[in-house]
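User: Can you recover a sequence for this backbone? Please restate the input before giving your answer.

Assistant: Of course. Working from this structure:
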């Protein structure tokens, strides 16, 4: 049980550290999808 808990804690730390990077990637992806949609109109 301890390794599972430690792994979950490590994943949580990685997500907290990289939250701004994930937000940046999500925003960039949304912008590309929106540009593609507008380009097809």
């Amino acid at each position: 049980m301890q390794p599972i808990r430690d792994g979950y804690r490590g994943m949580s730390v990685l997500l907290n550290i990289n939250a701004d990077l994930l937000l940046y990637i999500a925003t960039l992806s949304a912008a590309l999808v929106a540009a593609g949609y507008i380009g097809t109109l």
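That completes the design. Residues 19-39 form the longest helix (21 residues).
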